[in-house]
């Protein structure tokens, strides 16, 4: 069977085991595996999983095996290790989707086994092609060596025959000259001096002397011949088995398929579409926009370091003051994971009081006031005793019970918490419109990284205010804390410090690899939501 994505059971080696391992590792290292937050509706995660399933089905039907394997593994992992962890997974209203998901996962796993079988066949065929190519290259190399050896022997034989023919001709001429000289001596009268028998010296004699010396066909003496290394063929090297199939082209052809190409062409939810090509001559207004340089995005690790230093500076100046509370959520039974209700109730109490919410009122909300509300809301939506509750369920209930008022709702903001434009929208709503609402008390619930804090504003003038962040988790000497920010600049510094401090190493790695995309907001560690209320008067009904 194919490796089950949920339990990591070791599988027996198969022809495609290495190929599938490389695909899994590439997917894990891509940082694209999403996380599930309890503060986002479960329906959105089911919808996201449906998109992954559609991508898997399309790749499976078209026999795009690598993509089918990746999308099938993603779907199975996301359903079994992501959606299952959502606190609303066992809620009564999601029973049908839960059953449907279980059936779909089993079907996908069965098809993944089929994908693995097809991959096995492909890898066996690939190995056979590689072996055949190796044998072809080896035979081709041997053939070239044989032809070269035959050429060398043919050239050697030709030269030897030519040299032999030239030597024979010289020997015959020497014999003729020797016989002629002997005949001349015999024809001379007896008793003549030897000097008279010799012909006079001249060029003909020199020529005869030269004929008596052995020579090469080209007329050079053996001692005068010099050989040019370029005239001779290179020495033959013995064939090496290591050379066969070692070309770059072949090695590239048998390397495992790159998963990066899949990632570049698809989002987590499936293959993407190619973007529109830019016209050769863009309109003037577009060219003007493109010419404006965007500010350089600060790398996340550098941003964290700068934020921590700035926060220490503001603390020394007294612009940021942190004071512990005397309790925390979870200290009293029934308040665990109650931050959604606690933060909303703190905002409600702040708007009701004349001078703003006190520490005693905050502790009362955490230890007593939130407990029955949590029990009721969880029961209404079918959640367990310590389940997280999404913001909409809490706000709807508090508005129904007149603990929050719809006419006091200012607005909502969200997006990338480290983007000043996105977080600035929340700050703008909280600060209010100058001359109209900036002098009013206000409060916000900030949802970030599976936790909710409240930020309450108390105006000190028509333009200035104090902002307190109330956190019910035991992060301040084992207790909840209240952080006072004197002015908007201090609030911005503390907000950046609070958020960047909550990023884990995995979150930071994800941020370094991925730019912000609205379509992936539910899975991005930078995503936040904020809901803002202000002490607005109830509109008169005419």
UniProtKB/TrEMBL annotation:
It comes from the Eukaryota. Residues 163-173 have a biased composition (Polar residues). Residues 158-177, 187-210, 229-256 are annotated as: Disordered. Pfam families: USP8_dimer. Residues 35-117 form the USP8 dimerisation domain. The keyword Coiled coil applies. Keywords: Coiled coil. Residues 121-150 form a coiled coil. This is USP8 dimerization domain containing protein. It comes from Nitzschia inconspicua.
